[in-house]
Amino acid sequence: MSDAFLPHTFPPPPQAVIFDWDNTLADSYSLLLQAFNKTLVHFGHEAITRHELLAAQGQSVSVIFPKLFGTQSAQAQRIFEKHLTQLHHPQPFAGAEALLTMLKKNNIYTAVVSNKKGDLLRKEVAAFRWSSLFESVVGSQDTPEDKPSPVPLFKALENSIHDPGHHVWFVGDSEVDMLCAHRARCMPVSVHRPLSLSSEIFNAKDCFFLTKIIEYLLDNQKK
Questions:
Q1: Does residue 7 belong to any structural domain of this protein?
Q2: Residue 107 domain-assigned?
Q3: pLDDT confidence band for 5 (50 / 70 / 90)
Q4: Phi, psi of 125 (to 5 degrees)
Q5: Helix, coil or strand: residue 71
Q6: pTM of the model
Q7: Which has the least CB within 10 A, 11, 175, 180, 195?
Q8: How far apart are CA 48 and CA 36, in angstroms?
Q9: Which residues contact 99 (CB under 8 A, 6 or more apart)?
Q10: Angle between helical axes of 207-222 and 96-105 (0-180°, round to 10)
Q11: In which domain, by residue range, is 80 found?
């Protein structure tokens, strides 16, 4: 457990786990950066660095593009999506499929909530052959608001027996994800990079350690 920051008091295991997609389960930084820079250059802007992309991570293009492209934001979004679909699909992070399989085996409700456009998101989930591992996949434009609004998270839970609460974990890699979890009154869990030392947030190094955490909590519950 040395590679994960946990609250001082261990909670019960989650009854539902909702995941962000890009850079949480899918390693897509390089693809997003390529597509974003191709779009910027097309409109006469300078390309950005990986660090600059990280600073904006978690926000949907419906928020970012109007600021960058003004009245051309709709055209820019179409060009960005075209470049993104022409690139290879992202790859799953190591340990991600084992994590999802473990949750399925233990009858823990799982879903995806992403600010990636919904139809593209579901294509990527299908390309990973993970559609059967999720009860719901919610992307941008599937709800009136994107993260950090809690509305997409509520949408992901609406066909389940679970109401929002700390028994529902929301796992992501950005401050936008953590804010979404807080607004929905769910348990915020960051993965791949620490986002806060708040006692209300789990910080897990990667999918392997998140699997260990949940398995530990499940075993501890049985004692």
A1: no
A2: yes
A3: very low
A4: -60, -45
A5: helix
A6: 0.79
A7: 11
A8: 8
A9: 207, 208, 210, 211, 214
A10: 20
A11: 29-86
